[in-house]
């Protein structure tokens, strides 16, 4: 593990000359919060109420930013969770039986807090239950399911007699904090904004961590995230529950602000409005939730005043305007308004001063097996897609300290084989063993934990994130700090170690100059190298590379070959699929040739080049491109 730099920032960016500007982002945020706090006592009542509602909306929208913008799961049903939080506290604080039984223990002032706990417990159970069923669905099915549960919970509120039916529940007591009654909107508004700011801080910390990178990886697709060792199903459910809990907290605050609840504010329309807020503000940005909530709340208020007089009739016309607004914003500002505002403000902002870091936590280390040990074994692996046999009885070993190439014409079954020996797909027949363990029906993350890392034929990076963040994701399973530790910033020593390791691998792969650039801005060939650096950050024993030389220029290919030779010398086993025959013949120790899913040859580069069947099927006519003495070249 490399020693951390004393002046690395939490984001791992080395200290550089701070850019000129009037303030840093943190200073600006603190100044805005201080201004709001100072003005709070003098603002007109109406403004205070509006700001309180904006705070409530923003808490829900922040959860949606995490769920939809960051995690890639769309939910129209968050209003229902707001309802669960609101009804739980309303019921417990007003039902005669519960008041009698509990108020003796916690006192009347303690009842809303019991309501909060009840709301959170019910929300947790409902969200976990719904999440485990619906989050398995992909594409349009998930949003459709969120509509279904949003409607179900809404009608449940309206039809339960003990919840007051359509009339709702009145007489909800005010919150009491440390003996102070928060009966007035001005008083509870302070709590609402405090909750919002704390939630934003916790979520910001979560995103700026190992766990945050894993959450972002969900958007990069299940296959990529799982191959980094991330349990995607578990993360999706946790994210869903987190967003639901935030909604429930907002509902709890709402109930004690309004002191009355009815089903209407928890219907599907409102669920759609929450989604508008997150998307219009900037679905991938936490402050976008506040911006979106502010815009929609103010706009709604204005439209409700203006539209009826303009149209001469009343109705929910603001929903139509919201729809048009959404189309306009998405057309002009695809990522929402916050990124645009951010870019605009950048010239006045100073870069955050780097934070001094004393020590990095040790990362998990792997002892590599001795050279010659069989790492990966495929025995008689067959894969059928209906009537098509993509792999037919394929057997192959990959040993520590060797480069094994898998070649063959397009459609020969190389990627199918790759998928089966990396846990993406299961073989129809045959056996796959990794580190002498049977791997049938085990997920990619189990392969990753045992020491396998891979790259992809079609590059799978988080394009908007920096190279260093992408590479640090590869080291995910070498650290352990969870969500709570990340939220509370107890993971900093580990985070420094992860980022230092990522930078070390980036340097090693020759991309040091690009460490802080967004991955998408690199050329395709460089992105392939980023994937290799990401794989190396996991400290693998075996590396699977899918067409690593595609898109590289001559010198870049040479540098890549040198790197792979160095890794081989360090004892890694490397399985490479590649169409560039010069690259393969100069690098590989052994080559397996596939045609129509069947192994037609296996041996050293020289043996393969002399094999008539291989010449006929694949290498025929390509002799001019091959190195004169491939075997000699292989160890060069
Ligand atoms: N999910 C799938 N369903 C049906 N057929 C598939 C599936 N995946 C691959 N195939 C078929 O299996 C065969 C082998 O495909 P595969 O992608 O493994 O070949 P390849 O050697 O990797 O090709 P290339 O070099 O072009 O990447 C092809 O005929 C392909 O159409």
Automatic annotation (TrEMBL):
Pfam families: ABC_tran, BCA_ABC_TP_C, BPD_transp_2. InterPro entries: AAA+_ATPase, ABC_AA/LPS_Transport, ABC_transp_permease, ABC_transporter-like_ATP-bd, BCA_ABC_TP_C, LivM-like, P-loop_NTPase. Residues 376-621 form the ABC transporter domain. One of its GO terms (cellular component) is plasma membrane. Signal peptide: none annotated. GO terms for molecular function: ATP binding; ATP hydrolysis activity; branched-chain amino acid transmembrane transporter activity. The keyword Transport applies. It is a multi-pass membrane protein. It comes from the Bacteria. Coiled coil: none annotated. It is found in: Cell membrane. The keyword Amino-acid biosynthesis does not apply. CDD domains: ABC_Mj1267_LivG_branched, TM_PBP1_LivM_like. Gene3D superfamilies: P-loop containing nucleotide triphosphate hydrolases (3.40.50.300). Keywords: ATP-binding, Cell membrane, Membrane, Nucleotide-binding, Transmembrane, Transmembrane helix, Transport. The chain crosses the membrane at residues 26-43, 49-67, 79-99, 105-128, 140-157, 177-203, 237-255, 275-298, 310-330. This is Branched-chain amino acid transport system permease protein. The lineage of its organism: Bacteria, Pseudomonadati, Pseudomonadota, Betaproteobacteria, Burkholderiales.
């Amino acid at each position: 593990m490399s020693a951390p730099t004393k002046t690395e920032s939490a984001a791992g960016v080395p200290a550089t000359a701070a850019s000129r500007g009037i303030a840093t982002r943190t200073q600006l945020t603190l100044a805005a919060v201080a201004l709001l706090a100072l003005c709070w006592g003098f603002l007109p009542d109406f403004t205070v109420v509006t700001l309180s509602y904006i705070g409530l909306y923003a808490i829900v929208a922040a959860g949606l930013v995490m769920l939809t913008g960051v995690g890639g799961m769309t939910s129209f049903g968050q209003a229902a969770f707001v309802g669960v939080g609101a009804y739980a506290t309303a019921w417990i604080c007003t039902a005669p039986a519960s008041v009698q039984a509990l108020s003796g223990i916690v006192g009347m002032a303690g009842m809303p807090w019991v309501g909060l706990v009840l709301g959170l417990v019910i929300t947790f159970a409902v969200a976990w239950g719904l999440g485990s069923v619906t989050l398995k669905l992909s594409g349009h099915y998930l949003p459709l399911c969120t509509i279904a549960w949003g409607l179900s919970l809404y009608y449940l509120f309206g039809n339960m007699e003990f919840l007051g039916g359509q009339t709702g529940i009145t007489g909800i007591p005010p919150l009491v904090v440390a003996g102070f009654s928060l009966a007035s909107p001005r008083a509870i508004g302070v709590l609402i904004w405090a909750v919002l700011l704390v939630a934003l801080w916790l979520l910001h910390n979560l995103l700026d961590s190992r766990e945050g990178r894993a959450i972002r990886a969900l958007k990069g697709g299940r296959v990529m995230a799982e191959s980094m060792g991330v349990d995607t199903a578990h993360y999706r459910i946790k994210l869903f529950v987190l967003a639901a809990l935030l909604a429930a907290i907002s509902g709890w605050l709402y109930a004690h602000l309004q002191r009355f609840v009815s089903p209407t504010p928890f219907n599907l329309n409102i669920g759609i409005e929450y989604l508008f807020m997150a998307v219009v503000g900037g679905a991938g940005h936490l402050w976008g939730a506040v911006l979106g909530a502010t815009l929609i709340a103010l706009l709604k208020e204005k439209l409700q005043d203006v539209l009826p007089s303009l149209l001469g009739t009343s109705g929910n016309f603001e929903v139509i305007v919201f729809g048009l607004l959404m189309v306009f914003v998405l057309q002009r500002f695809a990522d929402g308004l916050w990124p645009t505002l951010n870019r605009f403000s950048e010239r006045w902002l100073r870069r955050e001063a780097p934070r001094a870091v004393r020590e990095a936590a040790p990362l998990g280390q792997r002892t590599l097996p001795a050279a010659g040990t069989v790492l990966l074994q495929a025995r008689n692996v067959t894969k059928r897609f209906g009537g098509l046999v993509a792999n037919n009885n394929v057997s192959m070993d990959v040993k520590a300290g060797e480069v094994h190439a898998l070649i063959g014409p397009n459609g020969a079954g190389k990627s199918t084989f790759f998928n089966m020996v990396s846990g993406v797909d299961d073989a129809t027949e045959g056996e796959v063993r990794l580190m002498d363990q049977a791997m049938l029906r085990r997920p990619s993350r189990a392969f990753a934990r045992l020491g396998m890392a891979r790259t992809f034929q079609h590059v799978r990076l988080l394009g908007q994130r920096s190279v260093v963040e992408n590479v640090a994701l590869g080291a995910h399973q070498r650290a352990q700090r969870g969500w709570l530790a990340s939220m509370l910033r107890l993971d900093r020593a580990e985070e420094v170690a992860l980022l230092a390791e990522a930078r070390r691998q980036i340097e090693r792969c020759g991309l040091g100059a690009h460490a802080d650039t967004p991955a998408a801005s690199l050329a395709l060939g460089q992105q392939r190298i980023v994937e290799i650096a990401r794989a190396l950050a996991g400290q693998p024993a075996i590396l699977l590379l899918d067409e690593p030389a595609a898109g590289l220029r001559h010198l870049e290919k040479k540098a890549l070959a040198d790197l792979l030779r160095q890794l081989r010398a360090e004892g890694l086993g490397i399985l490479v699929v590649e169409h560039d025959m010069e690259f393969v013949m100069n690098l590989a120790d052994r080559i397996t040739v596939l045609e129509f899913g069947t192994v037609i040859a296996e041996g050293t580069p020289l043996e393969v080049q002399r094999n008539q069947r291989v010449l006929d099927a694949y290498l025929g006519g390509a002799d001019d491109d091959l190195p004169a003495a491939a075997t000699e070249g292989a160890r060069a």
